[in-house]
Q: What sequence folds into this?
């Protein structure tokens, strides 16, 4: 939608002229990470404090402009850019990047919303503590965006997702009030947990401006192993064995398919980590305050004896460790395959014991609907969360794939719902899944969500077109 001219001087006086971006300066922030959504806005505005956010939101209310809040713009569901909405303004919080305090004794950290995940990890480490969330976009993704999407990543097996890390929040509401819920209480049964409403709200209820998060004990002893699965049926038995043998020290448990490893190694000129190939591998990581090597060896030995794995390597140097994780983090093949942008990538979670069933169902559907297309899954199987890909790989597959793409999506989604799963485990609904997700919840549940939306944002000021299916 073409954005009408609006006088921006008042905005400049709120945040400073240098922080109201237009034209070419604004353009990079109007396209999402995957280059899938391209928006238009009257400006990208970069406030420096909650008070400035509040004034900008009030300005937007006066001028009937909608607010699309943006952090690092690494979101994978299209929620961070304005598309086809009313006249829009992008509120980029990356200037609000102050770590306000690290309380090592209280095991908390208080930050502004634009601080990156990596900066928080580093600040916690400097204080002898751990900020647990971690994933490939750590250097760019912000805590505000992570909370707004209820992000997950590689450590959820041990620490849970963002929802489990948040103790308190500050947010700017639709009428420009600043709600200060920056509490650092481990227990508080004094009523509705309002902060949790903002977790996973994807910018639709307000602007998160500050947060108090949990810190955990540091884990100086860490070790990763890469194990060749005997077959996919062994996956969940291997996970159960890992939990039984290494317990709390199990930090990550990720599925890595051979087809993906091959592609990443070819693309980045890396040596394949395994001498004995298998169709699937598991990349797992142990982390603890105590040495983990014996536990890891016991686990791998028991798994081999039980016939669950056919081979395994343990990373013995930091270089090997980072190479294994590079292979894992390069698996989402945004640029690996020529026709990737036409394909599907799912962010599904199913009850954990049904992981294998879900994987096989998607493969069977793909083989039937788009024969020859590449179909494989990777990711956080220890959380019941699999990123399944289905994409055309040769030029002659493209047309038949596009012809049957909608049918493919409908059948895969139906299979997910049949397994009592969710279409969005960690990336959020955004614009991508907004229509597809509707059958996942009952009309009562959607109506409860709409009631909350109407109560907090009666004019639909925040991120219209994101998350909630249209009425
Ligand atoms: P943005 O992309 O800027 O915004 C995302 C959503 O949050 C939008 O709806 C936006 O409006 C809203 N939002 C942003 N900031 C605020 C705020 N302050 N207040 C209110 N709403 C706000 N995600 C995972 O969960 N697990 C992974 O393993 C993972 N791996 C990734 C790997 C790569 C290479 C990339 C590019 C992305 C990955 N992601 C992953 C997705 C992404 O990093 C997360 O969704 C992250 O939480 C987004 O943070 P952001 O600051 O970039 O948010
Ligand atoms: C991942 O697990 O690598 C992320 O969620 C990114 C992605 O799926 O694209
Ligand atoms: Zn993921």
A:
């Amino acid at each position: 939608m073409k954005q009408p001219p609006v006088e921006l001087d008042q905005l400049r006086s709120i945040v400073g002229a240098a922080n109201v971006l237009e034209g070419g300066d604004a353009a990079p922030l109007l396209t999402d990470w995957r280059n899938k959504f391209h928006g238009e806005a009257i400006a990208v505005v970069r406030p420096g404090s909650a008070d400035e956010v509040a004034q900008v939101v009030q300005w937007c209310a006066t001028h009937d402009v909608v607010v699309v809040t943006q952090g690092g713009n690494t979101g994978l569901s299209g929620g961070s850019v304005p598309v086809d909405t009313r006249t829009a303004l992008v509120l980029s919080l990356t200037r609000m990047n102050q770590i306000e305090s690290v309380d090592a004794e209280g095991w908390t950290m208080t930050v502004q919303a634009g601080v990156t995940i990596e900066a928080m990890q580093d600040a916690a480490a400097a204080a002898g503590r751990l900020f647990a969330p971690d994933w490939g976009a750590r250097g760019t993704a912000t805590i505000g965006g992570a909370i707004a999407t209820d992000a997950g990543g590689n450590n959820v097996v041990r620490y849970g997702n963002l929802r489990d890390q948040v103790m308190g929040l500050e947010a700017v509401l639709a009428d420009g009030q600043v709600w200060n819920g920056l509490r650092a209480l481990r227990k508080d049964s004094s009523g509705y947990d309002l902060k949790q409403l903002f977790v996973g709200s994807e910018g639709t209820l307000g602007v998160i401006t500050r947060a108090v998060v949990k810190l955990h004990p540091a884990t100086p002893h860490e070790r990763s192993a890469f194990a060749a699965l005997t077959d996919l049926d062994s996956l969940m038995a291997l996970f159960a064995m890992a939990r039984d043998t290494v317990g709390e020290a199990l930090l990550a448990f990720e599925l890595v398919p051979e087809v993906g490893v091959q592609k990443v190694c070819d693309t980045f000129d890396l040596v394949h980590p395994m001498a004995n190939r298998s169709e699937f591998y598991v990349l797992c990581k142990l982390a603890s305050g105590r040495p983990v090597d014996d536990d890891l060896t016991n686990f791998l030995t028991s798994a081999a004896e039980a016939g669950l794995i056919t081979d395994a390597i343990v990373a013995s140097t930091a270089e090997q460790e980072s190479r294994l994780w590079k292979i894992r983090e390069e698996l989402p093949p945004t640029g690996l395959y020529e026709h990737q942008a036409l394909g599907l990538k799912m962010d599904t979670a199913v009850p954990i014991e049904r992981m294998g069933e879900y994987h096989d169902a998607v493969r069977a559907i793909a083989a039937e609907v788009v024969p020859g297309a590449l179909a494989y899954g990777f990711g956080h199987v220890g959380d019941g969360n699999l990123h399944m890909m289905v994409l055309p790989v040769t030029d002659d597959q493209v047309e038949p794939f596009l012809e049957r793409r909608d049918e493919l999506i409908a059948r895969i989604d139906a299979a997910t719902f049949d397994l009592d799963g969710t279409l969005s485990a960690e990336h959020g609904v955004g614009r991508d899944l907004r229509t597809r997700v509707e059958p996942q919840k009952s009309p009562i549940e959607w109506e409860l969500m709409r009631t909350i939306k109407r109560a907090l944002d009666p004019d639909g000021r925040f991120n219209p077109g994101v998350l909630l299916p249209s009425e």
The domain at 99-216 is CATH 3.30.465.10 (Uridine Diphospho-n-acetylenolpyruvylglucosamine Reductase; domain 3).
